[in-house]
TrEMBL record:
Physiological role: This protein is involved in the repair of mismatches in DNA. It is possible that it carries out the mismatch recognition step. This protein has a weak ATPase activity.
Gene Ontology annotations of biological process type: mismatch repair
GO cellular component, one term: cytosol
PANTHER family registered for this protein in UniProt: DNA MISMATCH REPAIR PROTEIN MSH1, MITOCHONDRIAL, DNA MISMATCH REPAIR PROTEIN MUTS FAMILY MEMBER
All residue ranges annotated as the DNA mismatch repair proteins mutS family domain in the record: 699-715
GO molecular function terms noted in the UniProt entry: ATP binding; ATP-dependent DNA damage sensor activity; damaged DNA binding; mismatched DNA binding
Protein name: DNA mismatch repair protein MutS
Top-level taxonomic group: Bacteria
Residues engaged in binding ATP: G625, P626, N627, M628, A629, G630, K631, S632
Record-linked HAMAP family: MutS
Renumbered residue ranges of the record's region Disordered: 828-852
Species of origin: Marinibacterium profundimaris
Amino acid sequence: MAAVTPMMAQYLEIKAAHPDALLFYRMGDFYEMFFDDAVAAAEALDIALTKRGKHEDQDIPMCGVPVHAAEGYLLTLIRKGFRVAVGEQLESPAEAKKRGSKSVVKRDVVRLVTPGTLTEDALLEARRHNFLAAFAVLRDEAALAWADISTGAFHVMPLSLARLGPELARLAPAELLVSDGTVSQFEDTVSDMGVPVTPLSRASFDSSGGEARLCDLFGVSTLDAFGSFTRPEVSAMGALIDYLDITQKGKLPLLQPPLRDRAERNVQIDAATRRNLELTHALSGGRAGSLLSVIDRTLTPGGARLLETRLSSPSRDLEVIQSRLSALDLLIEDPLLREDLRAVLRKTPDIDRALSRLSLDRGGPRDLTAVRAALEHGARIAERAADSGLLAEALTALTGFSALSQQLDAALVAEPPLLVRDGGFIAEGFHAELDEARTLRDEGRGVIASMQQEYISETGINSLKIKHNNVLGYFIETTATHAQKMLSAPLSDKFIHRQTTANQVRFTTVQLSEMETKILNAGARALEIEKRLFEELRRAVLDQAPRLHQAARALAETDLAAGLADLAAGEGWTKPRVDDSRAFEITAGRHPVVEASLRRDGAPFVANDCTLTARDGAAIHLLTGPNMAGKSTYLRQNALIALLAQMGSYVPADSAHIGCVSQIFSRVGAADDLARGRSTFMVEMVETAAILNQADNAALVILDEIGRGTATYDGLSIAWATLEHLHAQNACRALFATHYHELTQLAGKLEGVENATVAVKEWEGEVIFLHEVRQGAADRSYGVQVAQLAGLPASVVERARTVLEALEQGDREGEARPKALIDDLPLFAAAPPPAPKRPDPSPLADMLKDIHPDDLTPKAALELVYRLKDAART
């Protein structure tokens, strides 16, 4: 059996400490993987699998990736569900050899790369948060903590188990930490969200240990300065910090003090509603086609992340809503200011992520220049908006950085390299010793030539030369005749004899020896000086991190306000009136996503009103009309208008008065959940049950086709009972679309329930959708006409008409028609459709057959019109 080599022994030891991660083992310019890691990585990355040596008489599988391209490979592995332990060389091969010729270079894992702990730009979406969340359950209480280590955001909130699903849907964390003893309690909830789960030991969730970790992180003796936290909240935050300590190997990120959120501050939106309304992702899965994609006119990554947060968490605080709308008012009224701000914001880098990388020692010179540029642009924004009153409190955070800004401006070149090890990022003239080292490195020959001229002047020997060889290094050479002068006082005190040859004598000086050392070491010394200066600048930036985070927030707020103002001005949106009433009055409302899509096709959007003002009880509109007429669009657009208003945006309507909505529930469309054994109807009923059990009287509910997934009378009875429950128990504002026309009779019996219908027009057996919502009820659903539009064979459409007429006749006569139909009507036979009838000969067609319009003179065309009119009379 072959002995295990020292290097492989080291690899196995490191791998044993990280069994659940792929080990990137640094070997010079490559990260190499062995054994099962190599097999898995080669398949996931589609790279060659080779072998190196043997272990227990078996070939050792091996694959590798270049260090300079590692980020791309890391991203692929993370997206495919792997965790990666990055094992770096902790010393150079030369240092290892000092311990013995066969010594192995020291290596260890410096970082665990997981979905929730990414910081590099190449691994992240610039315009989205990347949250790491932790959920803690202590007896009957629970809490959720979440942080984005790439921006420093850190939040926590008390949370019931029932609210975990909706909050995960809101935050969409990249990774969720749970205690390994509690996973089974909410396994279904988490699997519904598709969030990767990482179990931690119970010790990580210990609240006492968590408090100590938090105090140590923020350098305080108590958490009271940040607020009053429950034990589950401290447990969740502590587990999150413990996990960061494990994955970052002691280099904790620069987190902001924790902010305590409360569910009642925001509009509650469950996972199904977010999906149905397509807030941040379309039903197809991508961002295109979502509400976010249509309204996002932000220009900075921070502004884009803030927009998604606001859209995911509309406010219920009227003061907050009015403050946000007032900022938009100023920017809409002053388009010049808006455009000036956006011009500056367009060039503003991402401070938060630069700070995060700098705090974790993953930053480079470009992160420093990003901070410099952001401060410069922030100062311009503050100056430009100083007299406008725009976001006055936030914009004060952009001032007071003149000293740091000047330091960075003086120290850094305009366009630095990516990595510190590349050097060349410190500006010329900033540091005298660095300038000298660079001069020696870049102009060594010139320096030596200058010294030679100096010695010629000093000795008066014009033939004196400074030369170099590998034995003596730099030396001064002259003829034997002139050497006597240099060997005599006073020159002998300076010039030191080194060597005498047949025709020449060689000297040196202390100055030349020192210069030789400087020249030989100039490159390394210049880089070391730059590294030291980088560290000083990094420290200067991090010392002001709390204020810089506030500046980043101010820039994001400004960007979001300017983006929403640009949207409102460009699209003709209006300022909503939001108050604490139960009003809901929309005039000429539009669906922003559908309108944008139609505009690209050159088609207009038909706007519609909606009045759902509730006084003492419910306000429910029962909406009927055919499929394809726009009922679902109408339902969704009113929910979106309410949501946009409460996030602090103008809305796509001529006017909007919205009494503050506490919850938005949407059940529009459904699909099988095969993985969990749920049919379409079961999914529909689960979502409806959640609405009926949770909606309060300030909720806005939109329901589409309740009961359609089962038998007619079952579905009708469920829809009937659902409508009555919304009216009597939930007493909320609701839009209820249905094909059960029997329900329209309830409008005359239940106060607050009104009928509305989507208008259509029939023309020669075809249905034309007008997309107009009017008062009243539809007399039928026009399903057969819609089937015809969809392209069903003509024979099927005609048979459907026959059966429909028979069923409707039976309803009018009170008969049980389905059985009678089977007995009375011959069964449908799948025969070829009849050949279309040839139209009767038309005199008008005969007249036009030989007419060539391009050949007609104006007079002849007029005469033709008269002849056609005469022919039409006959």
